[in-house]
Amino acid sequence: MQDMPDIVIVGGGFGGVALAYCLAKGGASVTLLEAGSLGGGTSAAPAGRAQIIDSETEEYLDLVLAGYNRLEGLGEELGIDLEWTLPGHLTLISNEDQWRKFEGLVTRLQQRAIPAEMIDQAALQRAEPYLRTDGFLGAAYSHEGHLNPFKFTAGYARAACRFGAKILHHARVIGFEKSGNRITAVITERERISGRVVLLAVGAWTGELAAKAGIAFPMRYTHAEAIVSESLPRVLNHHIGMTGFYEAVHGSERSVTLGIGQHPNGTLLASNAVQKMEKVDLSSTYWGMPALCRAIRAFFPRLGGVRIVRTWAAPSPFTPDYLPAIGWLPGFDNLYVAAGFHLAIPTIPVLAEQAARSILEFEEQPLLAPYDPKRFFDSSTV
Ligand SMILES: Cc1cc2nc3c(=O)[nH]c(=O)nc-3n(C[C@H](O)[C@H](O)[C@H](O)COP(=O)(O)OP(=O)(O)OC[C@H]3O[C@@H](n4cnc5c(N)ncnc54)[C@H](O)[C@@H]3O)c2cc1C
User: Fold this and answer.
1) Residues 306 and 157 in one domain
2) Sheet with 239-242, side-by-side order of all strands
3) pLDDT tens digit string along 100-125?
4) Residue 132 lies in a domain
5) Domain CATH number, residue 180
6) Fewest beta carbons within 10 Å, which of 80, 132, 148, 275?
7) Domain ends where: 318, 343, 367?
């Protein structure tokens, strides 16, 4: 009994490591099991944006701003340089409908004292000299930060270990032992680990793993690809994206929705080539990289000769209502889920803290109420 960790976390992406940190800091004994390498799932894919303008509702904007305000000091708290910068974001606008929609979003940010404005085509061209602005009315500028996503994972993981968390790599969970309403042990390919609470932070794999516990969790995902260029002198001043980004990312069609930014090390990171997939697949497709390269050429003709040095693919997970699922799973007394993050980087600092509190104090946190996973189950299951 003495060796039993209080909490077994399955999954070492953003969600799992941030929870490991908050729970270990709160005094819990934590063991995290990761199937591969830390941050090797979807958390290996992000651009690193801390998006604000993309918050759909006032409630979600509250959450995003609360988390965003933590990011500037997070590196110091975790003891790592997160490479936090403030490039700002330009959403390219090509028609009047989009202009009106983004005017509304910009006004909403201005009312919260977040720097944002609509800029016309001439101002857009001055802001981004390499961008071909033909066909655009202008852009919506919004304040936005950026960090190195690998360091976001590493920072949380190392800080968790400083508070005593144990992290096991290459420890794929293949099943659960149950007794009544409790998960009594988590089974990996090598061992059996008991915990008072089992927390699933397995992103796109949530459906697959929850099924092993007998729960049909409706996690969805698309297959998203990104590319990275060689290092260049400064050619982009902002992160630049298109309208309809999330509609495309969640959509069923094969599509390219270009989001591109230049990292402090000079490389350009461009995503997303998105397509529907029935099974998680981390391989790049024959069409993804060429499609992204064509999009870059169309928008930035002078960057046509830039060499691409890396490409990757990852599942882009989302729940049926696109909001995170954070809370106790129905049918069990000790099975918790934290997945389906939307605008992950700016929300995770707050969501992980609140989730840790709800687990350690066994008390519902009002801020988490809209994200209760029970909303996906009918009352007979709950
Ligand atoms: C191309 C792309 C760009 C993005 N850009 C941004 C961005 O700029 N800003 C932003 O905020 N968000 C962005 N996102 C979204 C963000 O990356 C995700 O929301 C986030 O990484 C999800 O983290 P997670 O911990 O829930 O899942 P994951 O990172 O996928 O972690 C789950 C982990 O569980 C492990 N696992 C699975 N099955 C098992 C098992 N049986 N046993 C043990 N471990 C298991 C996996 O190996 C994985 O490491 C982007 C996503 C994509 C695809």
Assistant:
1) no
2) 116-120, 138-142, 89-93, 239-242, 255-262, 267-276, 220-231, 308-318
3) 999 999 999 999 999 999 999 999 99
4) yes
5) 3.50.50.60
6) 132
7) 318
Report the atom number in ligand 1 closest to the C-alpha of 49: 8
**Distance in Å, CA 334 to ligand 1 centroid:** 23
Q: From the CA of 239, how far away is ligand 1's center (Å)?
A: 21
* Residue 152 CB-density burial (10 A; 0-12 exposed, 13-18 middle, 19+ buried): buried
* CATH number, residue 136: 3.30.9.10
Residues 240 and 276 grouped into a single domain: yes
Ligand 1 pocket: which of 8, 9, 14 to mutate (most atoms <8 Å of CB)? 14
Three-state secondary-structure class, residue 234: coil
Taking only the tens place, the pLDDT of each residue in 222-278 is 999 999 999 999 999 999 998 876 666 676 678 888 999 999 999 999 998 888 888
Q: Please give the structure tokens belonging to residue 344.
A: 């992950």
Asked which of 295, 318, 341 is the last residue of a domain, the reply is: 318
Is the bond leading into 69 cis (omega within 30 degrees of zero)?
A: no
Which ligand 1 atom is at minimum distance from the Cα of 344?
Answer: 11
- Is 276 inside a domain boundary? yes
Residue 349 near residue 67, CB atoms below 8 Å: yes
Question: 298 with 200, same domain?
Answer: no
Question: Mapping DSSP to helix (H, G, I), strand (E, B) and coil, where does residue 27 land?
Answer: coil
- Tally the C-alpha atoms within 13 A of residue 17's C-alpha that lie toward its C-beta: 29
- CA 292 → CA 31, 49, 196, 300, distances in Å? 39, 19, 46, 12
Same domain? For 342 and 308 the reply is no
Domain span including residue 185: 7-45+150-219+322-376
The pTM for the full model equals 0.96
Kindly state whether residues 232 and 311 are assigned to the same domain. Answer: yes
Cα 94 to ligand 1 centre (Å) = 31
Q: What values do phi and psi take at 139, rounded to 5?
A: -155, 160
Backbone CA torsion sign across 292, 260, 204, 276: negative
